[in-house]
Amino acid sequence: MRFHGCGYLVIMTELSVYVHIPYCAKRCTYCDFATFTHREHEEEAYVAAVCQQIDECPYSTRPVRSVYIGGGTPTHVTPAGLCSILNRLRDRFPFTPDAEISLEANPASADGPRFEQLLAAGYNRISFGVQSFNDDSLRLLGRLHSSNDAIDAIRTARAAGFTNISLDMMFALPRQTIRAWTADLDTALDTGVDHISAYSLILEAGTPLTARVRRGLLPEPDDAAAAEMMMQAHRILSGHGFDHYEIANYAKPGFRCRHNIVYWTNGEYLGFGSAAASYVNGCRATAVRDSSEFIRRVQLGQSVIAAEERLPRAEAVAETIMLGIRLLDGVDIEHIEERYAVRLTDVLAPVTTRLQQRGLLRVSGPQIQLTEQGMLLADTVAAELMACVEISLRADSNR
Ligand code: SF4
Q1: pTM confidence score
Q2: What's the rounded Cα separation, in Å, for the pair 115 and 158?
C-alpha cells in the first residue's frame, strides 16, 4: 500500500483494462452510447491509434487481471484489428495467468472462423447483446438480429470453443408482458449460457424510442411491472442455479464477471479509445467522445483527455459504498475504513439502522447488504448512505 498525491490511502493492486470500439452497423432505437455508424473508412486508423495509446501508457508494470473490449460493436472491426489490440496489451502489460479477456459481440455478426481466430488470440469470454428473444421486441429496439440469429450465435461461439458466454437481456420494454419476459428468460436458460445480465430499459433523452413514448405512440414504462420483472428474473435464474451476485447480474458458479466486479468495488482500471474512462490513483479521466477527434489527437501526439477529476476522499468513499451496495454480498465497512483511512461505522450507524428497520438493508457486523426489498430500491438506499458519508467526511476535513 502507499499514499498518493490525492491524500488518501490507495491499495496498489492489479489493473483492469477497458477498450472502447465506437462503431456499429446501425444505431439501435434506445441507444445513446458513444458509438458511430458509417465510419468504416476510419476503423483501421482507429485500431492503430488505440495501439499507439497502449504503447504510450505509463502504467505498464502493473499486472492486468481483466480486459473488456466493449462498444459499440467490437466485432464490427476486423478480427485482425481485435487481435492486434490484444497483442499490444500483452506486449505492454504483464497479464495474470488467469486473466479474463471479454469481448462484446452482436449476434448479427457471429461467424465460426472469426470466433476461432479470436479464441486463438486469447479472448476467453464472449458477451452477446441479445436483449430479447422476441422478434417484435427486437424490431422495436432496432436490433439487427432475430431471435434465431441470437440462438445460432451462441451455438456458434460454443462450437468454436468459448467456454464462458454471457448474454445481455433487457426488460420493461414497451408492450412487454411478464409472460413474454418469462419466455425470454426460459430461452436464455435453454441456450446454456454461463452468465446473464438483465437490465431494465432506460429511456435516454434524444433517442427515437424515447421520442415515440413521449409522443404517446408507445406506452410509458410501468414501474410496478418493471419491479415484478426484476423479481421474476431473480426467482427464475436463482432457481436454475445462477448466483444472483449483483442487482442486474447472474452467473453460474465460477462465472461472475471479474471485470465488472472491479467497477462495483471501485477498483482501478485503464481505458483506451474514444470515450473510454480510466480510474487510477484517485483520478478519473475520460477521453474525447468523437472517434475521428480521438484518432486526430493521437496522430498529432496531443492529449485525448476531455475531462479529468481528482476525487476528494469523501466522494471516493461515498462512491465505493454506492457501487458496492449493488453487489449482493454487500459492502464491508471495515474494509472501506482501512482502504481510505476513515472512520465510518459510527457515522453510518443511524442510517443503516433506519434502512434495516424499513426492511431494505441487512446488517451483520461490518457487512451491510441489500434485502430483496432493498434490491428494488437500491438507488434510494445508495443515495441515503452516500449523503451520510459525504456530509460527515466533508465536515471532518473542514475541522
Ligand atoms: S449495438 Fe449496442 S452500442 Fe451499437 S447502437 Fe445498438 S445498443 Fe448502441
Answers
A1: 0.93
A2: 9
